[in-house]
Amino acid sequence: MLLGIEIGGTKLQLVLGTADGVIARRERCIVDKNRGSEGIREQICAAIPKLTSTTIIEAVGVGFGGPVDWRHGKICCSHQIEGWTDFDLGAWLNDVTSAPVRVEKRRQYRLPGRSALGRRQRPQSSFLRHPWQRRGWRLSC
User: Fold this and answer.
1) Which one of 76, 111, 113, 121 is most buried, by most CB atoms within 10 A?
2) 15-21: which pairs have CB atoms within 8 A and are 24 or more residues apart?
């Protein structure tokens, strides 16, 4: 199974699904800005066992709502949440999940869904792309 994580300044979403785009489980959390990046990492650590109790994670794809170094899986900075500057999110998630991790700027995942609807319409779901295969996952908002 594949794990998709969307990290934003106000919400955190995790989905467990297949490469075919079938979502088996999902978890959504409200981000507490006062707890910073450490609070978000704690939420991720709490959510993963709920999603993967009997499943092995094959790969993790992350969409982050700020500048990232996608080649190395590092967060450059966050303009909304303290504590992300130069954080190696890819390595941290690899330690947590024992799976390969791909970190991208969240906008890179969302653009295909938004462009299909036009600039003025808001999509009913976000589009999260599995980084090793060119298939899409739909993450309900």
Assistant:
1) 113
2) 15/51, 15/128, 15/137, 15/139, 16/51, 16/52, 16/55, 16/57, 17/137, 19/130, 19/133, 19/135, 20/135, 21/135, 21/136, 21/137, 21/138
